[in-house]
Fold:
Amino acid sequence: MKFSRKRKELNGIPTSSMSDVAFLLLVFFLSTTKFDIKKGLGIVLPPASSQGDKKVKLKDENITKVLINKEGEVLLKTKDSEELIAMNKLKARIKSIVRNNPDMVISLKTDRQSQYKYMVQALDQLQAAGAEKISLSTN
Amino acid sequence: MAKIVKKNRPETTIPTASTSDVAFLLLLFFMVSTVFVKERGLKVTLPRAESIEKIPRKQSATIYVNSAGVISIDDFPVEIPQIAGLMNSKLAQNFNLITCFRTDKNTRYGIMSDILNQLREAECLRVSFEAKLKR
Structure:
């Protein structure tokens, strides 16, 4: 009498396609990854004034005003002088002002109709010049 | 007769056994570093600046303002008077909150000034104006 042999099935997970799967996932992540690095110009705002708060009055010689009109022109106004200045020259001028008087407050006043980029450019120049006391305002 | 000795040429094949290891390693790196964007925001062209610094992502809340003056927070269009309340609730969740502005460079500054006043009311005093690095 003949006994037919039963074939034993091999137990095991096929791993030959593992690298294909890995590459497929790799391509997915490569194409969808977006490195979300935020960069910007930081500033700390003053708290909203309430009735109880005392207003500190600054001396005129401790204030430098940087005024930007709607065309993006910059006017630098100190206690003694007033001059129209190019945006890229602002850094050097402020640097010398701050060096002479470290308590100097720079008041950046931008026209409401002016474009936002002019304010950012001016703020960038002020921060690059090492000005620490900056105030933002508008008309 | 002299015997001609065959020279054994070295095999020139690239070993591919470790390819899957490399692939898994890269895969792991991308899986760990991938950040899925939470909000779509508005389409803006950022201004350029030189002295920009990194903003810690976990502490930041973004306010989008496009060139038409549309304001968006968490993908919801908001009006200026609503901002103080919204940001105040965000501040309650995260005390070290930094408000990031993703504003189009051609937006009128008046809108920004109004938003800044709202932030002062909400006591969200740490602000950052997002910009691209000037080269």
User: Anything to note?
Assistant: The first helix of chain A runs from residue 18 to 32. Chain A has three helices and six strands.
